[in-house]
Amino acid sequence: MDALVVEKKRKNIDIPIDTFRNLSIRAVSEGKSLKSFIENLLVMEAKSYSDEELYHYLVKNKPQGDVYLNEKEQNEFENWLGI
C-alpha cells in the first residue's frame, strides 16, 4: 500500500488560557490530543473555502505582490483552479 505524504508547516501560536482550557476539554471528550484536535479544526476550516473563493479574495483585496506572474503562469494557475 502506498503511503500518503502530506507536507506540513510548523507554526507556534499563542492562545488565551480560557481558550486553551476549553479546547483541551473538547479534545479529551473526543479522545484526541489537544494538538491533533486543533490541527483537525484548522484543516476543516481551511477546507470550507474553495480555491476559487480564495483566489478571488486575493485578486480583489491584495492585487499587489512581490512577484507577478507572466501571462502563461497566470493562465496555468487559473486553469489549475478551474476558473
Notable traits:
83 residues; mainly alpha
Structure description:
The protein has 83 residues and is mainly α. Helix content is 59%, strand content 0%. The mean pLDDT is 87.
* Rg (C-alpha, Å): 18 Å
Sheet with most strands: none
* Beta-strand content bin: under 5%
Number-wise, the strands total: 0
Tertiary shape: elongated
Helix- and strand-based class? mainly alpha
Structure, briefly:
With 83 residues, the protein is mainly α. It is built from 4 helices and no strands.
Task: Give a topology summary.
Elements: H1 17-29, H2 34-47, H3 51-61, H4 71-81
Helix pairs in contact: 1-2
